[in-house]
Specification:
Elements: H1 7-14, H2 22-36, H3 38-44, H4 55-79, H5 87-115, H6 119-126, H7 132-142, H8 145-168, H9 178-208, H10 225-258, H11 262-283, H12 285-302, H13 314-318, H14 322-333, H15 342-365
């Protein structure tokens, strides 16, 4: 009968007409990312011909793509020695830049491969939603060449401007050679595209937040496979963001110690503040949004039990199921909104804020 306490969530879970082809279309979009996402294509371009890429081939591909600017440097030693790298200081800085680029490429490949695991659970979650097609359209728009190129070129401009302003400082020991611009530009290109896709992944929960007819597991919505896989994916995204921020900051510190001046001092002070804001958006906002999506579903399940009646409904009393209604309310009202502990998110936030406060305090004393 319609007033059974467990009937409402079951009906909500099975409502609508499931689109069986949606998972296949979603998989095709993610598969096309291997060709259309700049940083993913670059990371595997030298190993993409293999039917099944092993770890050795993947590692060689990533290593060669990350270190190709050194080939340019070797050529410059022959054709234009004055434009090649000079001394250990420049090699130390370019080594730090190359290591950061290596990490970005490795994270891009592994993250996109992991994202393919989301296809089936995400297709199950969104298969009944009338707005399910909007997600595929949004992903295709994000893969457009123009938007990615704009973000990558923005990274190139920022990185090359940092090298230029550093070389113009009176106390600078660094000459703005072609080799330095190649290394900085390549790192900025990868960094701009990596940031573009980190923000894209962070925007995914905001997109599906307003979708109706989501297909949750009725017994525990937070443990719906899509929610579990999304939380694991965002743990990887948060780790990639943290590594990228630390690598970029260390590169700036190395450059600043070798070339003290106003330009790099402003970068070292401002970058952690901007980076902390991005880290909170990429590493915390998705969890908060996913929790709100689950909580909204739980509220919909509990809605029939929260009507403003002064007494139980006649049907509840007649069939002696008021106690079952109370049990159902107690069960659903205490369910978690995320499949992970809130303490994990708070530790991430506390780590970012504590590092930022300590850094700014040290800067104020120096």
């Amino acid at each position: 009968m319609s007033s059974e306490p467990l009937e409402r969530p079951i009906i909500a879970d099975r409502a609508g007409r499931h689109d069986s082809s949606y998972t296949g279309r979603l998989f095709d979009v993610l598969e096309s990312g291997y060709r259309k996402v700049f940083i993913v294509w670059l990371s595997r371009c030298l190993a993409a011909r293999a039917a099944k890429t092993n770890r050795l081939a993947a590692g060689i591909s990533v290593l060669l793509v990350a270190t190709w600017p050194y080939v340019v440097d070797l050529l410059l030693l022959v054709v234009a020695p004055s434009q090649a790298l000079r001394g250990g200081q420049e090699l130390l800085w370019t080594g730090s830049v190359t290591f950061t680029a290596l990490l970005m490429l490795a994270f891009a490949w592994s993250s996109w491969s992991y994202a393919k695991r989301l296809v089936i659970p995400l297709g199950q979650l969104l298969g009944d939603s009338p707005q399910r097609g909007e997600l595929i359209g949004w992903l295709r728009r994000r893969m457009r060449f123009g938007w990615q190129l704009l973000s990558s070129l923005g990274g190139v401009v920022i990185a090359c401007a940092l090298v230029l302003f550093t070389s113009l400082q009176p106390a600078s020991s660094m000459d703005s050679t072609v080799a330095l611009y190649v290394h900085a530009g390549w790192s900025g290109f990868l960094g701009g595209n990596a940031l573009y896709w980190l923000i894209t992944f962070a925007d995914l929960p905001l997109r599906i937040r307003y979708f109706s007819g989501l297909r949750f597991s009725w017994i525990d919505p937070a443990r719906t496979p899509a929610m579990v896989h999304l939380c694991r994916c965002y743990a990887l995204v948060a780790a990639a963001m943290g590594v990228g921020l630390i690598g970029t900051e260390l590169t700036g510190i190395i450059l600043a110690r070798q070339n003290p001046g106003m330009a790099l001092s402003l970068f070292i002070i401002s970058f952690p503040v901007v980076g902390a804001g991005i880290a909170l958006y990429v590493g915390v906002q998705p969890y908060v949004t996913l929790a709100r999506i689950v909580r909204r579903h739980l509220d919909d399940v509990l809605l029939p039990l929260l009507e403003s009646d002064t007494q139980p409904r006649d049907s509840w009393v007649r069939f002696n199921n008021s106690e079952e209604q109370l049990k159902a309310y107690s069960y659903y009202s205490t369910l978690r909104a995320l499949p992970i502990k809130t303490a994990s998110i708070l530790q991430y936030v506390a780590g970012i804020l504590a590092s930022l406060i300590v850094f700014l305090f040290q800067q104020s004393l120096s």
